[in-house]
Write a structure and sequence with these properties.
Strand content: 15-25%
Number of helices: 4
Oligomer: single chain
Shape: elongated
Helix content: 25-40%
Number of strands: 5
Largest sheet: 3 strands, antiparallel
C-alpha cells in the first residue's frame, strides 16, 4: 500500500461454524492520508463462486457429452450456420470439423431451404438425407 496502488484479492476464510467462505477484499490508499490512510471493503462472494463452479462443471459435462457422442451433433446460430460440430457429424458428412463450421445446416440436408430450417431442427425424429463432402447422399 505504500506504493499507492489499489489491490483486489479473493481468498477463503473459515467461519466460526467451520464453513468455508469466499471473500473479495479491496483496499485503496486515501489521498493525502499518509501511511495510515487506507479504505477498504470486504464482500462475501461465496454464492458467486459456487455459481461459477457449477457453471464450469455444467460446461465441462456438456463439452464431454457433445464431443464424445456417437450421434452427429451441431450447434447452430440463429441463421442456421454451424458454429460447432462434433466428430460423429464430421464422419457422417465427410467434412472436417473446420469445414462444417463454415456451412449452413440447410446446405447439408437434402431438399431443405433456408425458410424450412426451423422445421428440420424441430423434427429431430424424422430421417433426413445428408449430402456428403464427396457429393454422395447418406
Amino acid at each position: 500500500m505504500t506504493t499507492g496502488v489499489d489491490f483486489d484479492i479473493e481468498f477463503r476464510v473459515v467461519r466460526p461454524t467451520g464453513e468455508i467462505a469466499w471473500v473479495h477484499a479491496h483496499a485503496s490508499k486515501v489521498p493525502d492520508g499518509g501511511d495510515a490512510g487506507l479504505v477498504g471493503t470486504l464482500e462475501d462472494i461465496t454464492s458467486r463462486r459456487a455459481a461459477e463452479h457449477a457453471l464450469q462443471e455444467a460446461e465441462t459435462l456438456f463439452r464431454t457429452v457433445f464431443e464424445s457422442s456417437p450421434v452427429g451433433m451441431a450447434l447452430l446460430d440463429h441463421d442456421g450456420c454451424i458454429v460447432r460440430a462434433n466428430h460423429a457429424l464430421s464422419e457422417l458428412t465427410g467434412f472436417s470439423i473446420d469445414d462444417l463450421t463454415t456451412k449452413v445446416l440447410n446446405s447439408l440436408v437434402e431438399g431443405t431451404t433456408a425458410a424450412a430450417i426451423a422445421d428440420v431442427v424441430n423434427k429431430t425424429s424424422e430421417d433426413r438425407r445428408i449430402l456428403r463432402a464427396d457429393g454422395s447422399i447418406r
